[in-house]
Amino acid sequence: SQQGEEDPQALSIQEGENATMNCSYKTSINNLQWYRQNSGRGLVHLILIRSNEREKHSGRLRVTLDTSKKSSSLLITASRAADTASYFCATESPTSYGKLTFGQGTILTVHP
Amino acid sequence: NAGVTQTPKFQVLKTGQSMTLQCAQDMNHNSMYWYRQDPGMGLRLIYYSASEGTTDKGEVPNGYNVSRLNKREFSLRLESAAPSQTSVYFCASSEPTGAGSEAFFGQGTRLTVV
Fold first, then answer.
1. What stretches of B1-114 show up as alpha helix (H) in DSSP?
2. Residue B98 above 80 pLDDT?
3. Which of A86, A98, B1, B93 has the most CB atoms around it within 10 Å of its CB?
4. Which residues does chain A have within 8 Å of residue B98's beta carbon, measured at their own beta carbons?
5. What is the three-class DSSP state of B84?
């Protein structure tokens, strides 16, 4: 079964706007990661946030984690057409290092 | 630096045929994984290998076998393909630590079983 539920399933915005994607999960985690997948390609790691962290930044990406609500959000600021992709959250269990459980993904379309 | 390389990229099989998907990584990672991705879904773990010489089942192992040939290579075999195995298959590798580790993915194999 899928660990994560992502919301929304699809998001369409204009270039320059911010994009926010949400992820909820069910069991305890060691960390939560976000990946991007361009159409027809493999997944690329974006950012990892540990269970004892609440917020993390990387360039135009901001990730938050609320372990009490078992949820995370990914914010992409000042979106570009090149950000068009599917975005997946993935959780790593504290008892199974390396094994990732993925959410269903959010399809982001950024219009020029 | 190639990262994770999968072959083939595309394959069409008839029901009942067998095939092996190959995966190799050049990052000296101990752990390797096989996932499948179905339309509208995230990736689901089929099998993984925590280190050379070990393999273990993931969430959806039925109908598959794996071999960790050496530290670099991890293959996935379909002994008797079924239409339900039509999917995109991804191999990944990582070096797990207690602090967490990112996974590196191959480009995927798009498999159609008719």
1. none
2. no
3. B93
4. 30, 97
5. helix
Q: Which two tokens stand for residue A66?
A: 């609320």
Q: Is the pLDDT of residue A98 over 90?
A: no
* B85 phi/psi in degrees, rounded to 5: -95, 5
Mutating which of B43, B51, B56 best tests the A interface, going by the most A Cβ atoms within 10 A? B43
- Compute the mean pLDDT over every residue in chain A, rounded to the nearest whole number: 93
Q: Hey, which bits of chain A come out as E strands?
A: 5-7, 10-14, 19-24, 31-37, 43-50, 55-58, 61-66, 71-76, 85-92, 100-102, 106-111
Q: How many CA atoms lie within 13 A of B111 on its CB side?
A: 32
Largest CA distance in chain A: 44
Cross-chain Cβ contact B58/A99 below 8 Å = yes
Residue B1 identity (one-letter amino acid): N
- Report the SS3 class of residue A107: strand
